[in-house]
Amino acid sequence: MLMNCWNLNFEQTQNWQRVVRCLILTVVFALSSTAAHSATKTLLVLGDSLSAEYGLVRGTGWVALLENRLQENRLSYQVINASISGETTSGGKARIEKLLAMHKPNVVIIELGGNDALRGLSLKATEDNLRFMISAAQKTKAQVLLVGMRIPPNYGRDYTEQFFSLFAKLAKETQSGLAPFLLEGVANDINLFQADRIHPLAKAHPTMLNNVWPHLQPLLKK
Fold it and tell me: Considering the entire predicted model, what is its pTM?
């Protein structure tokens, strides 16, 4: 229809109203195409205290920094931070379906499991809960990024290594994205932690974002 507008022979037609209508339609079409292209998408973060800005001034955690990074890269995403301090994978499992229905995210970041391990919970239960969350998100056609975690070696070498490896195993089996270790470059520096030696200071969160960003970027463009 629009192409026919521009094929009008202006010397032969006196129907200027038709010409005006065609011009209006062309403008509307262009504007609607631009709006559709730039429509804001949603990114949901489901995490624990490491993502919930525990002990930090609001706006200084890695999720808040992610919002800034998205804007800097002209990626139109609304970030929903549904992280809760102390959250376990069972808590995430209980909440995720409601969150998916409410926010309809295009991308879901799952940063859970650390509290399971610190409590010595069953690795199988942790794996099953993470698998459930990944599956629930993928059923809604959302892209999923799983964020891996390590725990201190005093929990036993077998347990700590099995815990760390389950993230890569799940990512491979479910074809999800994987950020191998959120605290890479942070965990071994005591000066980057709050007094509890568990939660990083604000100055560590840019590094945490950099540990996530390269693995998140490909999902944002899908």
Answer: 0.83
